[in-house]
């Protein structure tokens, strides 16, 4: 009997070891288990080859039988190794593979449980601290509620502007930290003089400004806007404008020649024009109202408030321009009224 061609046995890949990490163990177990069945088939072919050799050569019969037994033992060991590998990889949670040792599946389940517990604990801690949800609130500031009962998400920095042309009250926005105020008093009324050469203009309303902290203000702040003075034979001065402790005085009324201060320029207010010598124009101003002009003279100019009214020799004098311009003076006719003041409020 001819001896058939000797079959080839493909070596098994490295077997997983108990000392391997779960990841390394799983990486070895899959290819090892996959190679077992082809290896078994090769072993069977080897056994058959051995039987053929045994039949052909009686002298090798005993060796062939021993080889067959060895192959069967190897197959049994391989099956045992496969079962052990499967147990290390996929045994149920809390079931020991060996005493005190558990599968990769067990450890994965425990890790997942720890993660879930941590998320629950974090959410509980957040809720216990009164913190609102983080989700969907990226880049928003966390602020204390108006009633101080907790915190809430606020909007990005808000700014506001309010202009008061009449008296009222101002309530700061809860999100604001600072308030900047500019105030201009009412312009003074011009003089309708009885005597020649004495029809002087009213002074412009004064300018004042201040930065406040919202924490230093009342919940509602009273705002007073000074009214313009009335031009007349006995004129009135402009009213003061006020915000909290900030006061912008009103311009004085037009005075007689003996009392006049002259049409001097100024930063916060322009003086009314007087009658000495050149029938002066009203004083100019940078921030406050311009002064009213004396008869025949123009009112003073203001860079950031109202100009003063022009004076008139015998006609109707000009009213001061808003805000805070002084009224023009005249002689024997209608003097100009001063313009009302203003209060401007910025908050952020």
TrEMBL record:
Where on the tree of life does the source sit, at the highest rank? Bacteria
Biased composition annotated in UniProt, kind: Gly residues: 285-294, 306-331
Q: Which intervals of the chain are annotated as region Disordered?
A: 1-24, 282-340
What name does UniProt use for this protein?
Glycine-rich domain-containing protein
Q: Where is the Glycine-rich domain?
A: 165-345
By its UniProt entry, which Pfam families does this protein fall under?
A: Gly_rich_2
Instruction: Name the residue ranges with Low complexity bias.
Output: 295-305
Q: Which InterPro entries match?
A: Gly_rich_dom
């Amino acid at each position: 009997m001819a001896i058939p061609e000797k079959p080839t046995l493909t070596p098994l890949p490295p077997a997983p070891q108990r000392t391997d990490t779960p990841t390394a163990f799983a990486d070895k177990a899959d290819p090892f288990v996959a190679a077992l069945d082809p290896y078994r088939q090769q072993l069977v072919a080897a056994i058959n080859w051995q039987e053929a050799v045994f039949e052909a050569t009686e002298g090798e019969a005993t060796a062939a039988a021993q080889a067959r037994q060895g192959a069967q033992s190897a197959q049994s060991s391989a099956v045992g190794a496969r079962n052990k590998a499967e147990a290390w990889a996929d045994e149920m949670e809390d079931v020991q593979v060996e005493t005190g040792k558990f599968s990769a599946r067990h450890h994965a389940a425990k890790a997942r449980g720890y993660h879930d517990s941590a998320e629950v604990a974090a959410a509980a801690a957040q809720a216990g601290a009164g913190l609102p949800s983080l989700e969907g609130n990226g880049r928003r500031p966390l602020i204390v509620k108006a009633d101080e009962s907790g915190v809430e998400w606020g909007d990005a920095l808000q700014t506001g502007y309010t202009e008061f042309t009449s008296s009222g009250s101002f309530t700061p926005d809860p999100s604001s930290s600072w308030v900047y105020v500019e105030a201009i008093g009412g312009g003074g009324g011009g003089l309708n003089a009885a005597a020649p050469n004495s029809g002087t203009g009213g002074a412009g309303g004064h300018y004042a400004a201040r930065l406040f902290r919202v924490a230093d203000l009342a919940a509602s702040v009273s705002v007073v806007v000074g009214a313009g003075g009335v031009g007349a034979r006995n004129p009135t001065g402009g009213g003061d404008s006020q915000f909290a402790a900030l006061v912008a005085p009103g311009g004085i009324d037009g005075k007689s020649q003996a009392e006049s201060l002259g049409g001097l320029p100024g930063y916060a207010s322009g003086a009314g024009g007087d009658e000495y010598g050149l029938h002066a124009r009203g004083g100019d101003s940078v921030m406050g109202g311009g002064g009213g002009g004396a008869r025949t003279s123009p009112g003073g100019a203001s860079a950031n408030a109202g100009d003063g009214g022009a004076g008139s020799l015998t006609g109707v004098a000009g009213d001061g321009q808003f805000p805070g311009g002084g009224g023009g003076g005249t002689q024997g006719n209608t003097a100009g009224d001063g313009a009302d003041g203003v209060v401007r409020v910025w908050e952020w």
